[in-house]
Design brief:
The structure is a homodimer of 194-residue chains. The first copy, chain A, has 194 residues and is an alpha/beta fold. Chain A has one domain: Maf protein, CATH 3.90.950. In chain A, strands 1, 2, 3, 4, 5, 6 and 7 form a 7-stranded mixed sheet that branches. The N and C termini of chain A lie close together (8 Å).
Chain lengths: 194, 194
């Protein structure tokens, strides 16, 4: 089977390898839009748009079987949904908001499948609670200087230097990094796609 | 300050970098022994023995200030403590035991400090709950074939291929990998060691 990841994120690429050893990368380029305000709905909708774009692009080129995987991640705290920061001031605001609090990370995944000229798709999302210790202004400033925060929802990466500020999580760790590895494995396995 | 990690584990080395950018590695070689049966006591005792061995070895060579960090990890399930498997059959037994269940991972850490000719040490441990999905005999056999399990407590590595079977955790993810990064950062920071 031909597998395609519709994302350019190096983190998602590493995580998908834990489930599917070999796949292609064709990042979605369209601007995703959502009218939803619930974080689970937002990530499900955006993952659908990414996977759908690449699925329909490939469909015009081939009669073979293939699977497209799209994913999207947001941070949710106190009824606010945080995507990637637009600049360092924005990153600073986000990190100050998350300091000493518990927030939720949602990743939505959509799978499009073309098998024997029949297509189908399904979507799911996972939520993980994340506990952040109290951050001093100096710690926030140092972390922003590290350059890790700019391309990440909520302005932090759990797998990098920010790990020293994560006192614990409840749920799938890899869901916070950007792909719910265990759920994805079970969903694909249940449908005999891997 | 001179920092020394008393462990040869490549995973602990990677994790310690998240807290201390530069340190030496001098692995403890003595055989650790414990008379304890509580997992928290076991990992605290064994981490103490590792750090103590290296602390006293360095003490004979230097009058400088230095810090030694020792750590030990075990898996605990249903009143049994699991270390590293002795062979593949043992690994198979361990994984079959953990299948479809929640187990606990304990990591103990001991820090020895020599500062201005005064020495002190302290020890702590962290516990993380880990949820494992139902594993088929085929999944266990394939995982053992991957070669990942032999040098790891409980016969699995959460960060590798086994991640597809971890449906979630409650606590610090890095504690399961082998070092409670956030707790270690806070304990060192509180004592002005970093």
């Amino acid at each position: 089977m031909r597998y395609i990841l519709a994302s350019n994120s190096p983190r998602r690429r590493e995580l998908l390898k834990k489930v599917i050893p070999e796949f292609e990368i064709i990042p979605a380029v369209g601007e995703e839009k959502t009218g939803s305000s619930s974080p689970a709905e937002i990530v499900e909708e955006l993952s659908f748009q990414k996977a759908s774009e690449i699925f329909h692009k490939i469909l015009t080129d081939t009669d073979d079987n293939f699977v497209v995987i799209g994913a999207d991640t947001v941070v949710s705290y106190n009824h606010r949904v945080l995507g990637k920061p637009v600049d360092e001031t924005h990153a600073h605001q986000m990190l100050r908001m998350l300091s000493g609090q518990t927030h939720k990370v949602y990743t939505g995944v959509t799978i499009f499948i073309m098998a024997d000229k029949k297509s189908e798709h399904f979507t799911f999302s996972e939520c993980t609670d994340v506990y952040v210790s109290e951050l001093s202004e100096g710690e926030i400033a140092d972390y922003i200087k590290s350059g890790e925060c700019m391309d990440k929802a909520g302005a932090y990466g759990i797998q990098g230097e920010f790990s020293r500020f994560i006192t614990g999580i409840d749920g799938d760790y890899f869901n916070v990094v950007g792909l719910p590895v265990s759920r994805l494995y079970r969903e694909l396995k249940a449908r005999d796609i891997i």
